Amino acid sequence: MKEANEPSNIVNISQRLDPSSGRGGDLLNAVRSIASRRLQQYIGNMFEHVDDALFDLAEKAENNAAQMHYFDGMREVRKRRPVIERSFLAHVARELNDFVNGQRSTSQGGSPAPVAGSIELSLVADNELEESLAITSMIGKNETRLTRDLFAVNQRLSVICGGARIEDATNPIGPALLAQAFRQSMRELSADMRVKLIIYKLFDRYVMTALDELYQETNAELMRAGVLPQLRHEVLRNTAGGATASGAGTTAAGEVPATLPAGDSDASAELLQTLRTLFGARRAHPTVPLSAMTQGPLPTANELIGALSVLQSQAATVPVASLPVDATMLDITEQVLQLKEQLLTQLGSLRGQRPGQIATIDEDTIDLVGMLFEFILEDRNLPPPMQVLLARLQIPYLKAAILDRKLFAHRQHPARRLLDGLADAAKSWSEESDRDGRLHDTVKAIVERLLQEFDDDMTIFDRLSAELQQFQESNRRRAELAEQRVAESTRGREKLEQARRRAAREILNRIGDHVLPPLVHGVLSRAWANYMVLTILRKGEESNEFREALRFVDAFIASTRPVRTPEAKRDLRQLLPGIERALRKGLTNVAFQDADIERLLGQLHAYYRQQLGDAAPAAEPAQAADSAPAPLPIPDSIQPLAESMADLEDDPAQAEPDLAAIAPEVREELERVTALKPGTWLEFSNADAHFERAKLSWVSPMSGRYLFVNRRGLKVADYSPYELATVMAEGRARVLASNALFDRAMDAIVDRLSHEDGRTNDTE
């Protein structure tokens, strides 16, 4: 057997099988059968979700053009889905057939990148680049996530292929070749690149994410057939500081990498290089004199893991304190700051001698993880109860960082994704939005499971991430429904208020300086105003019905003018039948009872007889002309609309002051407010020091008001831009960071080390 630090693809010669033999061919055919069955299921499941995803995006599109792109994409996908599915499965089948026949893929099969400076650097080239980046990111993320299972598949395929070198890039069911096969099949789809990128994301979510099931079934089948049944795949640290999956064996005791690992992107590499430089400068000025240190051999990685496991088991038995949050915060902060000292003490207990020094890479890792958790305790984006919970993860994360140096290098590292996911969930937490404690209990359970169960199996981070994602997804669906109802309710109220103001404005403009009799004024400002509001809501402001309602207002007002000539009397008599018909129709539409309509018309008849000088009972003209009629009963169905003319005219969304009249600090916040996008989280506080976290859910296109909801989708508040800017300027609201916790922490750590280095240089 080869040593563990030799190339991992070398296997025992006695275990190699000839693929041309019956046994080797049968095993490869079994792999092909498993892959074909599962991939057909996965790709079908993915396409079942494409319609919903594109429809949701179309509903949220910023303009009609973008909306049409998504609708066109939906139609194109529906039409081309069978062709794309057949093409993808055919590509995979061809790769598997070539593999069975001994023909190995040697390239990623991607499209060539456009030549710099070429006149062909066009939209097509840009699209190709976008597509390539999406594919590359997808492959890298899943090869990292699936390292263990994919490694085992590679090793077993190597055995049944006679010892041929099988790597991630040449495995016919590996993420690389599957992603490229899908990319080739997507050439059958003539859709906008935005639509294609959405489909790639869904492919990642529903096909790539499910590959662990395919690999586990493949490994189980080959193990049953006796192919490397004892294969072990452990995380080993290589001399570059990364982590590799390997066969049986471990690294030599005490072997540690000399530097932090290179990242999976230029940005990661640059960040890590900066950290190396800053930690190097820090070590050049030790705070403890070397003469004061106890000398002894450097602790090995195994010793560090052993000591941390002891500390972890002790921490797992300590429940979250029932003290007030402030007291608990002080206690947990002290634990975070003292972990390094506790680790050295525990190492001394295990080896009988306290180490004076720790290997440079391990000391940097301990300090880096310590700074990460100090940042968590200072991060105002996290509510204090959540800071207390997450800070308990320091020991498991230090173990993970020592086991796998890629934790700080790769954004998609499982441990990093779990911590970012926990922080993202915690950001939205508040007592009010989590009355049943489900979010708090879920985060607490994940923390406790890591403390109790994490030994050296890094797959626990993937499992817990999946559980957290499932919890978040189920809550997200419920919250979206509630949020949609809140938005619809708010939109309905705004339409109602807008209709009221339009009706009031039209009536007031037409009355002008006229002094109307109380009876006529009452009809216009109450009953008819309600009819106009409902007409706007049901038919719209441009409808014939609304224009007829306005003509009635004109005619009704005209009917109150003094009648002094025979011609004026004739004109009034001609108006009256139309006024009565329109009034009967309008009042019926707003649910007046027949008896109430007849009583109102009786009062109007008395008034018009007096206008025309016709004979009438003495009491009726006097009542009509000199006193207000008894108020008309308002039907329950329109009670919310029954307001005085002054109320109708009043605009609840007060006009915002001119920019020049706004205080400078409010004006500065107003610029930030106008840049806010839906989905942004804010923290609000009131005079009682009560805090609530809310997401900007919707900006009204009618009033410009900002609607905020909590994590359950329930309304917290709504503000005009000026009101929100004022609240922020007064310190009663602040915007929470939208980027990932780990990214914020790394930036803060670099800034902190840079300032430490600057202070050191200043004192020299």
From TrEMBL:
The keyword Isomerase does not apply. Residues 1-24, 242-264 are annotated as: Disordered. Keywords: Coiled coil. The keyword Membrane does not apply. Residues 1-18 have a biased composition (Polar residues). Residues 242-254 have a biased composition (Low complexity). Residues 479-506 form a coiled coil. This is DUF1631 domain-containing protein.
